[in-house]
C-alpha cells in the first residue's frame, strides 16, 4: 500500500525517489513472483482469481501512471507487459477457470468476478498496443454489462449484501474512469451507479 501511494506521489509531485521505490516494488515484489508456475496450479479458485484480478488492476494502474513520465526502460516495459499478459490470459481461459460452471453454481457473477473484469479492463486500457487488447476489453465489458443488467434491481439495490454492494460500486467506478479516458462512452453505466448510490445513501442515512 505504501508503495502504491508512492506511485501517485511520483505522478503528481515528480518525486524521483518515490518513483524508483514504486517501480522496484512493482517489478520485484508484485510482478516477477508471478512467473512462478506454482501459482497457477490451482488458479481455478475464488482466492486465486481475486489475486489475479487484483494483480492486473494495481499493476496496470501503477504502470500507466509511472510510464506516463517515462520511468521505465523499454526492456522493463516489455517485461511488465509480458508478465501481466500471462495473468490476463489465465483469467480469460475457460479451460483453466470454469467461468460457466462457477456462475451457474453461484447463480450470480458476484463481487469476485467484478475484481476479474476490473483487472482485465485496466490492463487493456494501460496497454493499447497489445495484440489481444480488444479480446480483454470486450471480455471485461461483457461481464460489466451482465452485472449491471442482471444484478442491480430497478430500485438500485445490488444482489449481494451491503458490504459487497459498496465494493462492487467502487470497483465499477475504478474501471469506468480508465474506460472514459480511453474514449469509451460510460454514460449508460452512470445512470445505474447514480441510482444505486442514492439508494444506498437513503438506506444508510438515519431518518430526520
Q: Which key features would you list for this structure?
A:
single chain; 208 residues; mainly alpha; 72% helix; 0% strand
Short description:
The chain has about 210 residues and is mostly helical.
Account of the 3D structure:
There is one protein chain. Helices cover 72% and strands 0% of the residues. The protein contains nine helices and no strands. The protein has helices at 2-13, 16-31, 46-67, 74-92, 99-106, 110-126, 133-150, 162-181, 187-204. The longest helix is centred in the N-terminal third of the chain and has 22 residues, at 46-67.
What is the N-to-C succession of helices and strands?
A: HHHHHHHHH
Distance between the termini: 39 Å
Quaternary state of this entry equals single chain
Mean pLDDT: 85
Instruction: State the helix count.
Output: 9
Structural class: mainly alpha
The tally of beta strands, per DSSP, is 0
The Rg value, from CA coordinates, equals: 18 Å
Helix content: over 70%
| Strand percent estimate | under 5%
Shape: globular
Low-confidence stretches: none
Break the fold down into its secondary structure elements and pairings:
Layout: H1 2-13, H2 16-31, H3 46-67, H4 74-92, H5 99-106, H6 110-126, H7 133-150, H8 162-181, H9 187-204
Helix pairs in contact: 1-2, 1-3, 2-3, 3-4, 3-6, 4-6, 6-7, 6-8, 8-9
Amino acid at each position: 500500500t505504501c508503495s502504491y501511494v508512492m506511485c501517485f506521489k511520483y505522478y503528481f509531485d515528480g518525486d524521483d525517489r518515490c518513483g524508483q521505490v514504486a517501480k522496484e516494488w512493482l517489478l520485484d515484489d508484485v510482478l516477477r513472483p508471478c512467473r512462478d508456475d506454482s501459482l497457477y496450479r490451482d488458479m481455478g479458485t475464488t482466492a486465486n482469481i481475486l489475486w489475479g484480478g487484483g494483480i492486473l488492476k494495481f499493476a496496470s494502474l501503477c504502470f500507466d501512471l509511472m510510464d506516463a513520465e517515462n520511468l521505465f526502460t523499454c526492456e522493463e516495459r516489455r517485461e511488465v507487459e509480458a508478465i501481466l499478459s500471462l495473468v490476463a490470459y489465465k483469467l480469460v481461459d475457460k479451460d483453466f477457470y470454469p467461468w460457466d460452471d462457477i456462475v451457474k453454481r453461484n447463480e450470480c457473477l458476484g463481487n469476485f468476478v467484478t475484481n476479474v473484469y476490473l483487472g482485465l479492463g485496466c490492463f487493456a486500457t494501460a496497454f493499447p498496443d497489445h495484440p489481444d487488447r480488444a479480446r480483454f476489453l470486450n471480455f471485461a465489458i461483457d461481464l460489466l454489462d451482465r452485472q449491471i443488467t442482471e444484478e442491480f434491481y430497478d430500485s438500485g439495490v445490488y444482489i449481494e449484501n451491503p458490504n459487497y454492494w459498496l465494493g462492487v460500486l467502487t470497483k465499477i467506478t475504478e474501471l469506468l474512469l480508465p474506460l472514459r479516458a480511453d474514449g469509451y462512452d460510460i454514460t449508460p453505466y452512470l445512470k445505474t451507479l447514480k441510482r444505486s448510490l442514492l439508494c444506498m445513501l437513503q438506506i444508510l442515512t438515519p431518518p430526520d
